[in-house]
Design a protein that fits this description.
- The complex is a heterodimer of chains A (100) and B (156).
- Chain A has 3 helices and 4 strands.
- Chain A has 100 residues and is of the alpha+beta class.
- Chain A has a single domain, classed as Histidine-containing Protein, Chain: A, CATH 3.30.1340.10.
- Chain A has a 4-stranded antiparallel sheet with strand order 1-4-2-3, covered by helices on one side.
- In chain A, a hairpin with a 2-residue loop joins strand 2 and strand 3.
- The N and C termini of chain A lie far apart (26 Å).
- Chain B has 156 residues and is of the alpha/beta class.
- Chain B is 38% helix and 18% strand.
- In chain B, strand 1 and strand 2 form a beta hairpin.
- In chain B, helix 1 packs antiparallel against helix 2.
- Classes of the chains: A alpha+beta (100), B alpha/beta (156).
- Chains A and B meet through helix 1 and helix 2 of A and helix 3 of B.
């Protein structure tokens, strides 16, 4: 049985036409904080804590950026698709629906 | 930061003590520097305050990045105002804001805006930068610090 130490990964393309701007970054971080798993988001050689909106802003992810989402922990399997949807969302509006 | 902050619009000592007052003072400084017509100031302030209504841009550590998009600009522009007393901003860490970076971007150019956000976040993580910035008393001192601070994303 997987004990959650092996991270699950997904590659996600930013589809928001404004990129991962401040409000989008905070919205993704809020969704990530819902899970117990550690969430790491990578862009090329950079990796940040996906639960920090401020850190996510340092990725400067423009529209079309390819991000690697990495989730490790007991609820990783549940978190991965939800976070992939949040990162790929075309708008920061409505991401609250992923909080429940 | 020297690529988007407008030197002539830097405000070393904000008079304003409220969020809207600080935003108005900084947009006014950009207007005085030639970037908006006088009759556009209200509209830009309203847009920035509308964005604040969706969630404060106070990112913690005494830093806020109020922003909006606006048609008709030649490029992303921004300015910076310092407050010695601090301004209530509903920041994520509850701290009053002492450094207000205000950005106005072209709607069709998300890249420069995202890079500006990245740059401001990353320089703000440095205690040394914040201490040196808050020690500035004149526009020239601020500009000298900005000129000597490399944009973190620009790995030239």
């Amino acid at each position: 049985m997987d004990n959650g130490n092996t991270p699950l990964r997904a590659t996600v393309v930013v589809r928001n036409p404004k990129g991962l701007h401040m409000r989008a970054a905070y919205a993704v971080a809020k969704v990530a904080a819902r899970f117990r798993s550690a969430v790491t988001i990578r862009k090329q050689d950079r990796a940040v804590n996906g639960k920090s909106g401020v850190s996510l802003m340092t990725l400067a992810a423009v529209p079309g950026s390819e991000l690697v989402l990495e989730v490790a922990g007991e609820d990783a399997a549940a978190a991965l698709p939800v976070l992939a949807e949040a990162l790929a969302a075309p708008s920061a509006d409505g991401l609250d629906r992923l909080l429940h | 930061m020297k690529h988007f902050l407008v030197r002539e619009a830097l405000v070393p000592a904000l008079h304003a003590t409220t969020k809207e007052g600080a935003i108005r003072e900084l947009v006014g400084a950009l207007q005085a520097a030639g970037y908006f017509r006088p009759n556009e100031v209200d509209q830009v302030v309203t847009e920035i305050m509308r964005r604040e209504g969706l969630g404060s841009t106070g990112i913690g550590r005494g830093v806020a990045i109020p922003h909006s998009r606006y048609e008709g600009l030649p490029r992303l522009i921004g300015t910076l105002g310092l407050s010695k007393t601090g301004i209530p901003f509903d920041s994520i860490d509850g701290q009053d804001v002492r450094m207000v970076f205000l950005l106005v971007s072209r709607p069709d150019q998300p890249g420069p805006h995202l890079h500006a956000l990245e740059t401001i976040v990353r320089v703000s993580e440095s205690d040394d930068f914040i201490n040196r910035l808050m020690a500035c008393h004149t526009r020239d001192q601020i500009w000298e610090l900005i000129e000597n601070t490399a944009d973190p994303w620009n790995r030239e």
